[in-house]
Design a protein that fits this description.
The protein has helices at about 10-20, 25-35, 60-70, 105-120, 120-125, 130-135, 135-165; strands at about 45, 75, 80-85. The protein is mainly α and about 170 residues long. Strands 1-3-2 form a three-stranded antiparallel β-sheet. A hairpin with a 4-residue loop joins strand 2 and strand 3 (about 80-85). The longest helix has about 30 residues, at about 135-165. The termini are far apart.
């Protein structure tokens, strides 16, 4: 089975990570992202019952949608029954999570990418079609295990060569 992706703007993902949302609100936002960006359409048609797919109680859906519209996170048209996530994150009126520095997200990404780039040979050991078939957690643990194994093997080979060279008499006057 081929893994498929939903292309979501980084600004929206960073906002989801760094802003304070309730669990219900996050589920609604993710569902709307899936219905819009995931289907490559700017707006999604909706009925309130659709949000029950995300495990939301029927009575809470209207209240949460109204709050997300007031916070300017969602754009909704009641008359057309359409919804989308407002792509202008700077217009969202949400409180920041006090424990998270929004500037730390790009730093984290930079750090992760630099580690991945150091492991490029390990990433190349998997055929391209196999990379698409496995989920990220399996890929990462497999890469780390493989990398550790390769490093240990190379270290052992190097140490064995050093031991051999130490035993060789390098004098030319035999």
């Amino acid at each position: 089975m081929k893994v498929k992706f939903t292309r979501v703007p980084n600004s929206i993902l960073t906002a989801l990570i760094t802003l304070d949302f309730t669990k219900r609100q996050v589920k609604i936002i993710l569902l709307v992202l899936r219905l819009t960006y995931g289907c490559q359409v700017p707006w999604a048609f909706y009925e309130k019952r659709y949000f029950q797919v995300a495990g939301l109680h029927r009575g809470a859906i209207g209240q949460e949608l109204k709050q997300l519209v007031e916070m300017r996170v969602l754009d909704m048209s009641e008359e057309n029954k359409t919804v989308r996530v407002n792509p202008h994150v700077e217009a969202w009126q949400c409180s920041r999570n006090g424990n998270i520095n929004p500037d730390s997200v790009p730093d984290l990404i930079r750090d992760m990418l630099s580690k991945q780039l150091r492991n490029v040979p390990v990433l190349r050991t998997l055929p391209d079609e196999k990379v698409d078939e496995i989920d990220d957690s399996e890929f990462q643990s497999r890469s780390v295990k493989k990398l550790k194994k390769e490093i240990l093997k190379k270290d052992e080979m190097f140490l064995n060569k050093v031991k051999i060279y130490d035993r060789i008499d390098w004098r030319m006057d035999r």
